[in-house]
Amino acid sequence: MLSVLTNSAIPSSIGAVLFSAVYGIDLLSGELTFAGINKDVSIGTLILFLFGFIVQGASEEILLRGYFFISTASCGNVPVAVFVSSGLFAMMHAGNAGVSILAVFNIFLFGVFAALYFLRRGSIWGICAIHSVWNFAQGNIFGCRVSGMNLNTSLFGTGGNGGIWSGGAFGPEGGLGATVVLAIAIVIVTFMNNKTHEGFYVRKVSESRSNFY
């Protein structure tokens, strides 16, 4: 348990920073406006949402990166595994409310970032934390739609109808703000040093599975 918490602490802040950058771009575009603090928000409800997103984010990452990606990559072609697992991740969101081609592309980019981060860090828990906190910050801190879902419970209020930069009915994940931030994040993680040794982590089944946790 201590290992899980240690491997999740810093990535949690990364998830918050990444979405905050998306939100900042959307504010600068003029498509979203900051509406202040929601004084009537229930802290207990926020905690329940956080727990829910921890379960949801971890479930998706364990399935797609911890199992599907590793199983594909262990056959010897890591780039194909990154592409296929990210494509599957994007297709899982293709039926969400307000979805667009740009939204599906951005979800694909997040999948690429997640796979590369997992490869560099060697533990599934880091990207689980990033994924969960990204969603929580988006819906329950800043009050934006999360992949088309309106949660109606957030620390801050956000106004505006949204557009090409802020994603419209899908939420910020469907806008150009997310495209910019995720593209930069992919470049950074591509050139980031590995946690313990040279070369990408996924080389063979035995090594890959030993680095899950």
Question: How would you describe this protein?
Answer:
Helix content is 62%, strand content 4%. It is built from seven helices and two strands; from the N terminus they run αβααααβαα. It has helices at residues 2-29, 43-73, 78-91, 101-121, 124-141, 176-190, 205-210; strands spanning 33-37, 156-159. It has a two-stranded antiparallel ribbon with strand order 1-2. Helix 1 crosses helix 5 (124-141). The longest helix has 31 residues, at 43-73. The N and C termini lie close together (10 Å). Mean pLDDT is 88; it is low at 197-213.
Strand order of the largest sheet: 1-2
Please tell me the overall pLDDT: 88
Instruction: Give the overall shape, derived from the CA principal axes.
Output: globular
Order of helices and strands: HEHHHHEHH
Helix/strand structural class: mainly alpha
Rg from Cα:
17 Å
Major sheet description: 2 strands, antiparallel
Give the termini distance in whole angstroms: 10 Å
Number of helices: 7
Helix content: 55-70%
Q: Which percent range describes the beta-strand content?
A: under 5%
Total strand segments = 2
**In terms of per-residue confidence, which ranges show pLDDT below 50 for 5 or more consecutive residues?**
197-213
Features of the shown structure:
7 helices, two-stranded antiparallel sheet, disordered C terminus, mainly alpha, 213 residues
Summarize the structure.
The chain is mainly alpha-helical. It contains 7 helices and 2 strands.
